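Hello Y.,

Per our agreement to keep a running log of every chain we model this quarter, I'm adding this entry. I've kept the format consistent with earlier entries: sequence first, then predicted structure.
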Amino acid sequence: MTEELERADNDSPWKEILEAYFPQAMHFFFPETAILIDWERPHEFLDKEFQQIARDAEQGRRYADKLVKVWQIQGEEIWLLIHVEIQAKPEDNFAQRMFSYNLRIFDKFGKPAISLAILCDADPNWRPNHYNYNYPNTRLNFEFGTVKLLDYQNRWAELEASNNPFATVVMAHLKTQQTSKKPGDRKTWKFSLIRRLYEQGLQERDIRNLYRFIDWVMILPKALEAEFWEEFKQFEQERTMSYVTTGERIGYERGQKEQSQSLILRLLQKRVGELPQEVQERIKSLSLAQLEALGEALLDFTGLEDLLSWLEANPAD
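Predicted structure for the entry above:
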């Protein structure tokens, strides 16, 4: 069950889905900011810039952070810092960290950033949205935008009626939370949410992207997973879709990546010794292609410093 929980908390599917549908994410979660943006002009993910201001992020926690350059309708450039708080438990210094990142962006790049947070935890009372201090001659009040996915429980009909891909993302997240100890119910919901993708008449690319998210977060015990695959393959065959192997292809890719991670971690421990947890997490965030490249590079490593240098030069995709 530990492995399942780790995968369910993984930040990779959130990063992937945000990159694939960033304008839709903004319209869905933060419409007041979205209307300021000229979506006819391309947006740009500033991953290298974000890494420069977030190197000392807490070890062991799961974040999906995106720093994005967009253009306002008036023609001015603006930066957006999107943070997805994936941890199951609330974090005491969350608001302070949101302020710290905003300040670092302004200090290092001279760019004011709009800071926005998507809260995925299950505590209805945890709603950080500001950081402040107040002294006789100095005061600060930093406010940032937040959405709480838990609030969408009362808007289920609205989610079902929406064709925004993030309606599906929220539905999958909520049902994952609600079925944490009900694997049979989770299997039913997983199938229902995936069937909904086809019923919406989405393109193959969109089905694959959303399928990947659902499959990663709605983890099933192995026996139920096998049942699910059989039922899903039959469903695709009955639909006579031209991409009937969608599920198998994604499952195969996921299996390949998990096997590669396990092998690379074992080889590295033999090569450079015990790996800190933070380093293991960085390796797990690498793409399959990067894992293969690391597998070749590690033959020349003589110590942990070589591995750290390689990871610095090859940040996760």
